[in-house]
Amino acid sequence: MFDMMNIMNKVKEAQAKIKATQAELVHLQAEGEVGAGMVKVIVNGERRVLDIEIDSSLVNEKDKDMMKDLIVGATNKALENIDVKIKEKMSSATAGMMPNIPGMDFGSMM
């Protein structure tokens, strides 16, 4: 039988750990690159774009549309990469804190 007080204490502890971990996400970074490294985008754990690097060979008026597509692609890739890191960080923050309840994924709580 479950000890409800123990479970409630674990939930509160997990919530505090999740909140503390969320505050650390600003320091987490991921990079997305496309076009064989011609465009790179760096984002943080708060899903904010920090930097965009564009190879000088792309800075040409004729290539403007291609550059735009590459930036969008690199940004989306960086955001996908940071989502993986966020999930890993949140999962490790709550590892072993909660009982294994089927269907409950505390690592994905955002």
Automatic annotation (TrEMBL):
Top-level taxon in the UniProt lineage: Bacteria
Coiled coil: 4-31
InterPro entries: YbaB-like_sf, YbaB/EbfC
Compartments where located: Cytoplasm, Nucleoid
GO cellular component: bacterial nucleoid; cytosol
Annotated keywords: Coiled coil, Cytoplasm, DNA-binding
GO molecular function, one term: DNA binding
Record text on subunit structure and interactions: Homodimer.
Known function: Binds to DNA and alters its conformation. May be involved in regulation of gene expression, nucleoid organization and DNA protection.
Record family assignment: Belongs to the YbaB/EbfC family.
NCBIfam families: DNA_YbaB_EbfC (TIGR00103)
Name of the protein in question: Nucleoid-associated protein Cycma_0425
Organism: Cyclobacterium marinum (strain ATCC 25205 / DSM 745 / LMG 13164 / NCIMB 1802)
Lineage: Bacteria, Pseudomonadati, Bacteroidota, Cytophagia, Cytophagales
